[in-house]
Design the sequence.
């Protein structure tokens, strides 16, 4: 089964119901719910998403949303090797993108799904938007 790393922006599109991007994100997560694809996120995504959701909702509501979301994804650890790789790769000036990328590499992910494809221009694995990925299905 194909394994996708979902970047934080796509997760927030879904959970914060960002109008312009929600439908594509929801469709992607629906495929995971039907066990047609495997979705992964880095553990950093949970921290960042909790921070954003807590600005939009109460802390309790944000945590409830994340608990429900967790059943749809596998969480990839950010370990010493991933951190070291991200810190030392000048191709990723945005450290968070480097962490996401190396989480994907170290866990043999097939595709990275993001709305910030330009931030992954030197990726060794395919990077596409949710819309592009869904158009391939």
Sequence:
């Amino acid at each position: 089964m194909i394994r996708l790393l979902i970047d934080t922006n796509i997760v927030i599109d879904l959970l914060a119901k960002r109008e312009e991007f929600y439908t594509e994100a929801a469709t992607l997560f629906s495929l995971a719910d039907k066990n047609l694809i495997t979705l992964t996120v880095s553990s950093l995504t949970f921290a960042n998403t909790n921070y954003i959701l807590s600005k939009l909702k109460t802390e309790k509501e944000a945590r409830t949303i994340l608990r429900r979301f967790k059943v749809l994804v596998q969480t990839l650890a950010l370990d010493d090797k991933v951190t070291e790789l991200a810190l030392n790769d000048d191709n990723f000036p945005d450290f968070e993108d480097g962490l996401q990328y190396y989480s994907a590499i170290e866990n043999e992910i097939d595709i990275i799904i993001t709305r910030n494809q330009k931030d992954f221009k030197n990726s060794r694995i395919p990077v596409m938007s949710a819309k592009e990925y869904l158009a391939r299905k």
